[in-house]
Amino acid sequence: MTTPLAPSRRAQWLVLTAAFLGWMFDGVEMGIFPIVARPALQEMLGTQADQQVGPWMGYITALFLLGAASGGLVFGWLGDKIGRVRAMTASILVYSLFTGACYLAQAPWQLGAFRFVAALGMGGEWSLGVALVVECWPDNKRPLMAGLIGAASNVGYALIGLVTWMVPVRPDSWRWVMLAGAAPALLALFISFFVPESERWKESVKTRTTHPLREIFGPALRSTTLLAIGFSSVALIGTWASVQWLPLWADKMVGKSLPQVKGITMFTLSCGAIFGGFLGPWIGAVMGRRPAYCGLCAASLVVCAVLYRTVTDFGAAFLVGAFVAGMVTASFYGWLPLYLPELFPTRARATGQGLCYNAGRVLAAVGAITQGQLVSLFGGSYARAGAVITLVYLVGMGLIWFGKETKGKPLPE
Question: What sign does the CA torsion over 62, 43, 250, 175 have?
Answer without folding.
Answer: positive
